[in-house]
Amino acid sequence: MIEIRDLSFRHPRQSKPFIEIPHWQLKQGEQVLIHGPSGCGKSTFLNLLSGMLTPQKGEICMLGQDITKLSSRQQDHFRAQHTAYIFQQFNLIPYLNAIENIELESQFSGNDKPTSNDSAGKMLERLNLPNPCWQQAVRELSIGQQQRVAIARALLKKPKLLLADEPSSALDAKNRDDFMTTLKSLLEECDCSLIMVSHDEALQAHFKNIQAFENIVQRGVE
Prior knowledge:
Layout: E1 2-9, E2 19-26, E3 31-35, H1 42-50, E4 57-62, E5 65-66, H2 72-82, E6 83-86, H3 98-108, H4 117-126, H5 143-155, E7 161-165, H6 173-189, E8 193-198, E9 209-212, H7 213-216, E10 219-220
Parallel strand pairs: 3-8, 3-9, 6-7, 7-8
Antiparallel strand pairs: 1-2, 1-4, 2-10, 4-5
Helix pairs in contact: 3-5, 5-6
C-alpha cells in the first residue's frame, strides 16, 4: 500500500529536517495506530502521505505510484481517487445538513459519479444516525453525530487509504469506543488501510499494530 524511502522534510524557515524517515511501509488493508505527544510531527506526517506537503528528499510510493513526482494537480486527483481524511475537528460545513456535507465532498473530489441522497442515506443508516438528523444543520448535531457524518463523508467513495488525525479527541470514552468499533468494521468490509495518529493511549486497545512516532522518524522535533 505505502512504502517510504529516505524521506526528509523541513518547513521553509527551518535549517534542519523536521522529519526524517529512512524506511517505513504499510500493507494493503492494514490498520496502524501511531502515537506520540502533541507537536512531534504526526499531523505533518499525514499531510506528507496525503500529498498536501512535499518532502525535500525521498520517495512516498502509494499503490505503486511515487506521489512526490506528481504535479499539484495530479496529486489532487490521486488523493481524490484513493485517499480519505478524517480531521480532528471534522471540517464539516456547519450550516449545511448531513446529506449536503457528504454531497459537497463528492463535488470537490471530482468524482465522476456524484453522491446521491440515496447512497449517502444508506451510509448514514449503517452508522446509526437517525433519519431525522439527516436534514438538520450539522451544528445542531452532537459531537458523536457530527463524527458519524464525517466518517460517512470519508468512506462513501470507498478509498484505499484512510488517514485519521486525532479523531477521538472530542469524544468521551463510550463514544470513542463506539466510533472505533463502527469505523474498523466498515474499513474491513472495503479492505481500506488505516493510519490513525493520536496521543490518546486508550485507543491502543483497538489496534494490533501500534507504533511510536519517535520509532518511525530518524530525527523529529518535539
